[in-house]
Write a sequence for this structure.
């Protein structure tokens, strides 16, 4: 250790980096974490998962009250939107959680190196003019918004915004156009729809939510349409011009054809995210990136250079906070000489709309390509708790290997699918068969019983349909 300032130096304090730093420190390693933001927690805590969920939660409650859903339950109220207070509670949530990470850094004696980190060699990093040598360096620099050529994002201007700007819009737009029908577009589009905006989603592909199970994508499409989101599929945006507080988008069919214009008060650009490696000095460390700009790693999260590791959004795989966190724990354990493993076949994904949309493992399409399967489905309409709570939309689908009955994937649309999917992930992690789930006693009345009944449907008939 003599020549080294740290055993572990982590670059980036998002869910990947801060978790890696805490685990490394817990394992007795002298640890530092470089972060250029004013607060810890990365994209997720500052401008991603947490503030978006704060707005999703509040806007959902507003919509329930304003639309008369609560009145139908016997709760009558005069409803008024106080957007400033709604933004205030979002900021409070972020402040509390980012401050919590700072507390955990202090508790675990992790040194926060404030500023942008850049490699000067394979074991040395410069932060704010100071050089630090570390035995192990973990790159956890995350990702940022993919720009759309010809479309200038101006979050301060509040008209053409990315996800960060869309969280902070000060006045409900009359018409919001969302470019990209992925997770961000649907979550943040839902927020502003619920608060009163007309929302149009322009999606390049012929279906929303790429990467999810086909049936789930189709059903989600129906549900969002019913909620009043206008979905313009197979359409590309070719330009956006802004004049004062108004934007004009030019769109045309993805396959080519006549162009048309759409007027909007706000435009959200949400066409994906790209890994952050600019200015990191990767060349000085001897590391290159792949065609998608990601840092390639081996099974243990090691890069092509010994002693340099990488995790989270900057490496291949889904760009999800829980994936980054699990990789953070595993890489720290590997550095400490333990065996840190992440099962990348079992990473759940959730879209936090209402209802929520979730899945883990293979889609039905992927599973069919691999061999014979059996599929069991159960509608939420037939689940007693969902029905009682007036949440009839959605279903649970369990996909199992036709021969071994091993669960290959579980997909669902349900009000609490984000919570329900954890059971499916755990079952798959334990190598469960559909029979295992079908014969596990589930508490009644819970939404989770729909998962049990979908598993029963794989093998024959569920009880309640
Ligand atoms: P990040 O969280 O991006 O953190 C990287 C950190 O590194 C940043 O703070 C950055 O400032 C810092 N950094 C970068 N370069 C340097 C450098 N050279 N020197 C010093 N510091 C540097 N995922 C979910 O699982 N669930 C959700 O509900 C969810 N919601 C989201 C909502 C939105 C609007 C967005 C944008 C994303 C959401 N995500 C969600 C994705 C999630 O935020 C990311 O997958 C996750 O943050 C990735 O973690 P990370 O540690 O790899 O990187
Ligand atoms: P995304 O990849 O989910 O969706 C982008 C969408 O934009 C795709 O449907 C794509 O076909 C479309 N698109 C691309 N170019 C286009 C164009 N020119 N015109 C019209 N449509 C176009 O990306 P998104 O929504 O920006 O999210 C980025 C990442 O953040 C995701 O990978 C996701 O993992 C993560 N995230 C996760 C959340 C969660 O877990 N709940 C919430 C928000 C973000």
């Amino acid at each position: 250790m003599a020549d080294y300032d740290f055993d572990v130096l982590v670059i980036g304090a998002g869910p990947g980096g801060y978790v890696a730093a805490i685990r490394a420190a817990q394992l007795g390693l002298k640890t530092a974490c470089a972060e250029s933001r004013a607060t810890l927690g990365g994209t997720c805590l500052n401008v991603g998962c947490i503030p978006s969920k704060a707005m999703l939660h509040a806007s959902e409650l507003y919509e329930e009250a304003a639309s008369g859903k609560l009145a139908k339950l016997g709760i009558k109220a005069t409803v008024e939107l106080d957007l400033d207070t709604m933004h205030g509670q979002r900021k409070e949530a972020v402040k509390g959680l980012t401050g919590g990470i700072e507390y955990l850094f202090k508790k675990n004696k992790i040194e926060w190196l404030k500023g942008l980190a850049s490699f000067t060699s394979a074991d040395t990093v410069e932060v704010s003019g100071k050089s630090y040598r570390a035995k192990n360096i973990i790159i956890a620099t995350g990702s940022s918004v993919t720009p759309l050529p010809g479309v200038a994002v101006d979050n301060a201007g509040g008209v053409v915004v990315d996800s960060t700007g869309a969280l902070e819009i000060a006045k409900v737009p009359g018409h919001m156009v969302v470019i990209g029908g992925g997770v961000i577009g649907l979550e943040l589009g839902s927020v502003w729809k619920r608060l009163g905006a007309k929302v149009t989603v322009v999606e390049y592909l012929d279906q929303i939510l790429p990467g999810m199970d086909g049936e789930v994508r189709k059903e989600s499409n129906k549900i969002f349409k019913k909620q009043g989101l206008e979905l313009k599929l197979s359409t590309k945006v070719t330009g956006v011009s802004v004049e004062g507080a108004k934007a004009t988008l030019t769109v045309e069919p993805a396959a080519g054809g006549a162009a048309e214009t759409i007027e909007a008060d706000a435009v959200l650009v949400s066409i994906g995210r790209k890994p952050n490696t600019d200015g990191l000095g990767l060349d000085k460390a001897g590391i290159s990136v792949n065609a998608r700009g990601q840092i390639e790693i081996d099974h243990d999260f090691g890069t092509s250079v010994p002693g340099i590791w990488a995790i989270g959004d900057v490496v291949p795989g889904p760009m999800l906070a829980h994936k980054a966190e699990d990789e953070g724990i595993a890489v720290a354990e590997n550095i400490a000489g333990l065996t840190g493993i992440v099962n990348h076949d079992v990473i759940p994904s959730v879209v936090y709309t209402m209802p929520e949309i979730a899945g883990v493992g293979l889609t039905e399409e992927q599973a069919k390509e691999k061999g014979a399967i059996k599929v069991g489905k159960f509608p939420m309409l037939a689940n007693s708790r969902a029905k009682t709570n007036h949440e009839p939309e959605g279903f649970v689908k369990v996909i199992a290997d036709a021969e071994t009955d091993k669960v290959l994937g579980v997909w669902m649309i349900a009000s609490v699918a984000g919570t329900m999917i954890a059971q499916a992930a755990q079952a798959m992690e334990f190598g469960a068969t559909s029979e295992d789930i079908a014969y596990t006693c589930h508490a009644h009345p819970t939404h989770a019983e729909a998962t049990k009944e979908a598993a029963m449907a794989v093998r024959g008939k569920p009880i309640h349909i």
About this structure: The chain has three domains: 6-145+274-335, 160-271, 349-458. The pocket of NAI (ligand 2) is lined by residues 148, 179-185, 187, 202-205, 210, 236-237, 270-273, 318-320, 349-352 (CB under 6 Å).
